[in-house]
Amino acid sequence: MDIVVTVRKQLKAAADKKTAEVSQRFFKEKVKHYGVKSAVVRKIASSSWKEAKLHSKNEIYKMCEELYRSDYGEESYVASDWLPRISSEFAREDLPVFKKWIGAYVNNWAKCDTFCNHTLGDFLIRFPDQAAVIKSWTSSKNRWLKRAAAVSFIVPAKKGMFLPEALMIADALMSDTDDLVQKGYGWLLKEESRKHKKEVFEYVLRHRLDMPRTALRYAIELMPKSLKIAAMRKE
């Protein structure tokens, strides 16, 4: 774990109280941050990867879990930066590990999205047959697994993949009262609309009276003004 120790020393050296205070403003819940600017965290993640990549996948996973376990946002970012770099080594049996990490270590939207967008997004592109497993997380009692069920599909959605699954995820989460879950599946619909504008618009139109306005606004963000007006009608 010498690399993890080095990462922590670098983050502590770059910490700034004001940056930590600014970071807190983006979250409703109390978050644990050193207070390191995003550009600096990215630089530390990239430089530390030069040594981390010399290790086996299992060793990298252990280092990533140690970083997630600390609860610091910056350490979580470093782990989530490393994992997609070994996406070619992902295996189907990694999915329960990823699910466990979400359940154990994710406690805000930034950790959820940083981990799910690329690690699980890349995993889905590599193993599309596992989409149903991630989709099943919509029935979880854990808010972050429910959000993960949606945002894990964001990167594939930008490529036009998994439209049927995205609509089923929206169906499953439609009545969820958690605004972060609503924003999660609304965001997924927005990304699907890049390649499937007609299908997503028709879906939103059918559900506009049932869909929370938060999710609806996210879903139609990329659409022309005329379609936005039609989707926002309340009658």
Shape: globular
Strand segment tally: 0
Strand residue content = under 5%
At CATH level 2, the architecture of the largest domain is Alpha Horseshoe
Q: Please tell me the total number of domains.
A: 2
Rg for CA atoms: 19 Å
Q: What structural class is derived from the secondary structure elements?
A: mainly alpha
- Percent helix: 55-70%
Mean pLDDT, to the nearest integer, reads 96
Report the span from N to C terminus. 59 Å
Summarize the structure.
With 235 residues, the protein is mainly alpha-helical. It is built from 15 helices and no strands. The chain is 67% helix and 0% strand.
Describe this structure in words.
The chain has 235 residues and is mainly α. The protein has 2 domains: 89 residues, Leucine-rich Repeat Variant, CATH 1.25.10.90; 132 residues, Leucine-rich Repeat Variant (Alpha Horseshoe). The protein is 67% helix and 0% strand. The chain has 15 helices and no strands. 40% of the residues are buried.
SSE layout and pairings?
Blueprint: H1 2-14, H2 17-24, H3 38-52, H4 57-69, H5 73-82, H6 95-105, H7 109-126, H8 131-135, H9 143-151, H10 154-158, H11 163-173, H12 179-192, H13 197-207, H14 213-219, H15 225-232
